[in-house]
Amino acid sequence: MTGLVIVGHGTRSAAGVDQFAALVERVRRRGDIGDVEGGFIELSRPPLTDAVGALVARGHRALVALPLVLTAAGHGKGDIPAAMAREQERHPGLTYRYGRPLGPHPLLHDALAQRIDAALAETSPAGAALADPSPAGADRAGTWVALIGRGSTDPDANAEVAKVARLLWEGRGYAGVEPGFISLAEPSVPAVLDRLRRLGARRIVVAPYFLFAGVLPDRIVAQSAEFAAAHPDLDVRVAEVIGDCDALADLVLERHAEALGGDIRMNCDTCAYRVLMPGFADKVGRPQRPHDHPDDPVGHHHHHGHDHHDHGHDHGSVAVVGGGPGADDLITVRGKALLDAADVVVVDRLAPQGLLAGLRPDVLVVDAAKVPRGPSMAQEAINAALVSHARAGRRVVRLKGGDPYVFGRGHEEVQACVAAGVPVTVVPGVSSALAAPALAGVPVTHRGVAHDVTVVSGHLPPGHPDSLVDWAALARARGTVVLLMAVDTIAKIATVLIEHGRAPETPVLAVQDAGLPGQRSVPARLDEIGAVAAREGIGPPAVFVLGPVVALTTGPST
Ligand code: SAH
């Protein structure tokens, strides 16, 4: 048998807690769905862990967990699943099916309409000032509705409130229904009331799209009263929240049945965590995180086990991002999204510098200045900077040239983060090893010409005691060789390759500053490339590509 745990997010309002408890009791009294408990993830009692503990103590190992939220936003997508994950750690073997958010749903829209009509049925507090002082009754045609949602940093959640506003208006005969938000989103309560006033509204019902009493519904009442006081010609009333009622219990039972039946789909088509939405690049591809609400009157939310800090993200993190070979637009979409969301960017000299111009002015840019052979910030210092910024709660992007793992020391940085317990991800990049030849018109492989391509560091010359490269094997191979960091060693490398059997006339192309405005390439035979590169002043960054494919060069593409 499955137990049902109804999960609330918690409130500082005693009335709100009582309404939640009453609803849980109402659902329980329906009797036919088994064992029911309710709990909160924060702020209020009983905590979720007690509710789950009670069900487990009565022998339940398989639960339905229903988030008692109207829209899918941070609580429903992130905080409640995280809290349930902690319960699963506490109770090994515990499984649960997760229900959908409650709204939008016709039962809710009907309940809202009832609350609105009830507000209309009351004698107007400002009635004496109106031409017609009689009770308004349910004069929907003369009534505008401001439907006020909680508001979220998640555009999908805000869009749901707009959808409910529309659905509430459809067929019910109100003059109009406009959405607004008490927190985190626009329009605010005064803004939506002013909009309705300009549209010619004389009577407005403010309808909180909230399940239960709480700090934010109270604030809706206060802001509406303030607006009404400033506009004595308007009749402004505030409807009750949805509250504990049969309709809500019916909806809980419907969501419960859906979860048991396996139909627990959410609308993910417009989810900012899946789809890149304008202005929300900081969300796409990232896990939904526990969050805080900057305007919470009593300070931040406190989710178990998470620390808060000044930026409003619970945890810092590091993304080691490959920036591509140098052009601003050869970074990946994912890398760019993370860069746009970064608080700190630790950047290499070879990373696309043009991308830095697009950063918000408050982003801290740290120049790691790892110029080959030049003065460099020690790798340990870079690792330490990544870890300490992340630990301070910042979103850190380590922006590197090309791909982070191609001679980029990217994995050392990842290892340092892992060792420090800092969340870290890698975003692959377009490596200069492949991009520089391509941008210069050389295909690194071609059917019938080269079936292998080897990417080699020329940093240590052949014969160097620390070299790990089998130069003799490279000389014997027939395919393409791409040499990075080889400006100083190319003459020596060419000599050794010829000594071990590569044909002296093998074509080579030196490609400097690939993808940058100064890109240039210089061709030569293998036995002449050292002298030609020196004479032409080839300097870093440059790659050398050699092998039969170089004979196919079509010329640079831009
Ligand atoms: N992780 C980088 C490589 C770092 S090693 C990548 O994947 O591209 C640095 C070497 O990369 C340079 O010495 C040079 O050989 C090559 N390189 C980087 N950017 C380059 C560019 N824009 N043009 C040509 N070579 C480049």
Automatic annotation (TrEMBL):
**Sequence intervals crossing the membrane:** none
Query: Which GO molecular function annotations are given, in alphabetical order?
Result: lyase activity; metal ion binding; uroporphyrin-III C-methyltransferase activity
Q: What is its EC number?
A: 2.1.1.107
In its UniProt record, which GO terms are filed under biological process?
Answer: methylation; siroheme biosynthetic process
Q: Output compositional bias ranges, type Basic and acidic residues.
A: 283-299, 307-316
Q: Which InterPro entries match?
A: 4pyrrol_Mease, 4pyrrol_Methylase_sf, 4pyrrole_Mease_sub1, 4pyrrole_Mease_sub2, CbiX-like, CobA/CysG_C, Siro_Cobalamin_biosynth
Q: Per the database record, which ranges form the Tetrapyrrole methylase domain?
A: 318-529
Q: Which UniProt keywords apply?
A: Lyase, Metal-binding, Methyltransferase, Porphyrin biosynthesis, S-adenosyl-L-methionine, Transferase
Stretches for region Disordered: 283-321
Has UniProt tagged this entry with the keyword Cytoplasm? no
Superkingdom to which the source organism belongs: Bacteria
Name of the molecule in the record: uroporphyrinogen-III C-methyltransferase
Species for this entry: Micromonospora lupini str. Lupac 08
Q: What is the gene called?
A: cbiX
